[in-house]
Amino acid sequence: MATSAQIAPEEASNEPKFGGFTRFEIELEFVQSLANPYYLNHLAAQKLLQQPAFIEYLKYLQYWSKPPYLKYLAYPGPTLRNLELLQQEQFRKNIISPDAVQAMVGEGTKAAVDWHLEKET
């Protein structure tokens, strides 16, 4: 059976549905949620980032960083950056810290402000 990484998104309508959604849709929503530092902290608090099967799933999700899947991400910068950070054991340990979360939020806010300032000039 083909994985969603092997199925073109346009062919996803032939995929089985889970709760009314295709695997492609479920994985897209999940991977996009990784852009949120508070969600990463939640995953750490639930101890999911310590589970080998979940770590393997995060590794599997790296297919979103390549075409044709990349174009479906609403916020590819923070989504893919955080997905890459989640591949590192030290980051998975550190994200439980509220200070680490606040630092990521601050970085994201600064990046957004800088982007808007660049657009104005």
Task: Record the SSE blueprint.
Elements: E1 17-18, E2 21-22, H1 23-33, H2 37-45, H3 52-60, H4 76-85, H5 89-94, H6 98-120
Antiparallel strand pairs: 1-2
CATH architecture: Orthogonal Bundle
Fourth-tier CATH superfamily name? Mediator of RNA polymerase II, submodule Med31 (Soh1)
- What is the top-level CATH class? Mainly Alpha
Domains counted in the coordinates: how many? Answer: 1
Largest sheet: 2 strands, antiparallel
Query: What share of the residues lie within helices?
Result: 55-70%
Total strand count, please? Answer: 2
Q: Structural class of the helices, strands and pairings?
A: mainly alpha
Distance between the termini: 51 Å
Q: What does the radius of gyration come to?
A: 16 Å
The unreliable regions are none
State which percent range the strand residues make up: under 5%
CATH domain topology: Arc Repressor Mutant, subunit A
Q: What order do the helices and strands follow?
A: EEHHHHHH
- Gross morphology is globular
Mean pLDDT level = 89
Protein name: Mediator of RNA polymerase II transcription subunit 31
Pfam families: Med31
Family: Belongs to the Mediator complex subunit 31 family.
Keywords: Activator, Nucleus, Transcription, Transcription regulation
